[in-house]
Design a protein that fits this description.
By secondary structure, the protein is an alpha/beta fold. Helices cover 43% and strands 19% of the residues. A five-stranded parallel sheet has the order 3-2-1-4-5, with helices on both faces. The longest helix has 19 residues. The relative contact order is 0.20.
Length: 168
């Protein structure tokens, strides 16, 4: 039987507890999970691509160990479907938080299917305690000195605060 490989793409600036939830749940469905960190300059990331990759690697290491599956974190700047082929993914995992996510994801799924019908998109609903969390909101709250500790893992919170204070 072929190894089931999934790709979970995102900007992860910063990685949130919602992302961690989706990664944890996706790990139960596959033999290998590739977390693709998109360049996405248009979103105005506070962390460099290398910093985001390193932070995601640090945060998912315990998940991979608990799940007993192979996980890797890779940066990408290509078309998503091209990157999915490159890593050998048969599925793309996407998280849905709210109805507002659905329209964009629906369109992207249709386009990806037309580009490669052999790669399925699988949606995982965010758990109710993470549905409102977004990286953008985390950055906004942190930039005004708000407590982000319930929205992101501890290491990510520390690095996000340091970055916004100009200390990292």
């Amino acid at each position: 039987m072929a190894e089931r490989i999934a790709l979970y793409p995102g900007t992860f600036d910063p990685i949130t507890n919602g992302h961690i939830d989706i990664i944890t749940r996706a790990a139960k469905l596959v033999d290998k999970l590739v977390v693709g960190v998109a360049v996405n300059i248009g979103k105005g990331p506070i962390f460099s691509l290398d910093e985001r990759v390193a932070l995601v690697e640090a945060e998912i290491r315990p998940i991979a160990e608990r799940a007993g599956i192979a996980m890797e974190v890779r940066p990408f700047s290509s078309l998503l479907i091209t990157f999915a082929r490159e890593v050998g993914a048969q599925m793309i995992v996407r998280g849905l938080r709210a109805v507002s996510d659905f329209d964009y994801e629906f369109q992207m799924t249709g386009m990806n299917y037309r580009l490669d019908p052999g790669i399925e998109t699988v949606f995982l609903m965010a758990s109710e305690k993470h549905q409102f969390i977004s990286s953008r909101f985390v950055k906004d709250v942190a930039s005004f000195g708000g407590d982000i500790s319930s929205f992101v893992p501890k290491l990510t919170a520390e690095r996000t605060i340091a970055k916004l204070k100009g200390e990292a």
